Inverse folding.
């Protein structure tokens, strides 16, 4: 059986995940993202800035939602491209009312992690083993 070898659209997955984080006023989706992200790098520059801002939200122990925290600081954190990116995330209206934000974030992290692991170079030791 042949598998189709198409590249995962990491930008779309990142954008979808971050939109759900920004729309979750409870902050639970952001906490899950920060706890489970690990060493996974964001591919888009504005997404990387937003990930740093979410970490700052957590570290500050803010009682504001991630969205409010980011909006209050966005002139400090990024440029016009960043503010435009965040505005598009906040204003998305393409989700059902009963969306489980945490499930979406976990699914997106899993897809990004699988793509990251698949593209990671395999090291072959002197004994010919991959170490996997």
């Amino acid at each position: 059986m042949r598998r189709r070898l198409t590249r995962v659209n990491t930008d779309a997955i990142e954008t979808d995940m971050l939109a759900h984080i920004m729309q979750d006023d409870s902050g639970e989706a952001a906490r899950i993202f920060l706890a489970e992200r690990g060493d996974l790098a964001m591919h888009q520059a504005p997404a990387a800035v937003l990930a740093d801002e979410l970490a700052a939200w957590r570290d500050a122990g803010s009682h504001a939602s991630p969205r409010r925290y980011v909006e209050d600081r966005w002139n400090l954190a990024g440029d016009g491209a960043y503010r435009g990116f965040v505005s598009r995330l906040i204003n998305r209206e393409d989700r059902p009312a009963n969306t489980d934000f945490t499930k979406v974030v976990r699914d997106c992290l899993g897809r990004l992690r699988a793509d990251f692991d698949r593209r990671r170079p395999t090291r072959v030791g002197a004994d010919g083993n991959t170490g996997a």
In short: Helices lie at 10-23, 28-36, 45-60, 66-77, 80-90, 101-119. DSSP finds six helices and no strands in the chain. Residues 32 and 44 are 20 Å apart (CA to CA). The mean pLDDT is 88.
